[in-house]
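Quick one, tokens below:
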């Protein structure tokens, strides 16, 4: 339960602010990718195949690990780094699946300057993006080439965001330390001040 009390018993903050993953652009993009992958596999891949299971699980892993890492960050920046790294790896695996699909079905992989690729990338600037923002590129009558290439573009954007997030987390960890270090510093600060640790800080 969140402590909303006043100054009585207040001491150094040990558990850092955490959560709020729904506001992360990386999570928002990963959620779109997951929803779009479910639709793509339902349209273009045998729903009973191992490929469908692997692709949807990779997409889900990208989304879920960002959320789990954000929630874990209050007590373990190391865990957050690890889980964001897992999310990044899962989306890279999914990227290869879409590239394999295009190659194996004789469909072209759009280059960076392809007109439709540029259109898809431009949608990232819209506010309150969701799967509906990209629906015309995934749902009928969009063909497999358009849908797969759209997902490739989205995954590249998500991976870029995750790479930035990982660099930021690494710098934050190096600068501020982890939970164990901060716990030790807080206890030393309490001892030096001559106060008894509050019950919340002694668990």
């Amino acid at each position: 339960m969140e402590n909303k009390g006043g100054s009585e018993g207040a001491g150094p903050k040990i558990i850092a602010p955490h959560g709020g993953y729904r506001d992360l652009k990386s999570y928002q993009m990963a959620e779109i990718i997951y929803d779009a992958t479910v639709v793509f596999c339902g349209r273009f891949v045998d729903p009973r195949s191992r490929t469908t299971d692997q692709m949807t699980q990779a997409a889900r892993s990208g989304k879920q690990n960002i959320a789990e890492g954000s929630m874990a960050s209050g007590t373990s920046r190391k865990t957050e780094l690890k889980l964001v790294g897992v999310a990044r790896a899962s989306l890279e695996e999914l990227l290869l699946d879409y590239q394999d699909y295009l190659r194996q079905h004789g469909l072209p992989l759009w280059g960076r300057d392809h007109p439709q690729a540029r259109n898809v990338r431009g949608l990232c600037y819209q506010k309150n993006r969701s799967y509906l923002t990209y629906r015309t590129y995934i749902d009928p009558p969009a063909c497999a080439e358009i849908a797969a290439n759209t997902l490739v573009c989205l995954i590249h954007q998500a991976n870029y965001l995750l790479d930035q997030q990982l660099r930021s987390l690494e710098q934050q960890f190096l600068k501020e330390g982890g939970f164990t270090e901060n716990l030790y510093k807080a206890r030393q600060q309490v001892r030096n001040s001559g106060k008894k640790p509050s019950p919340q800080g002694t668990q």
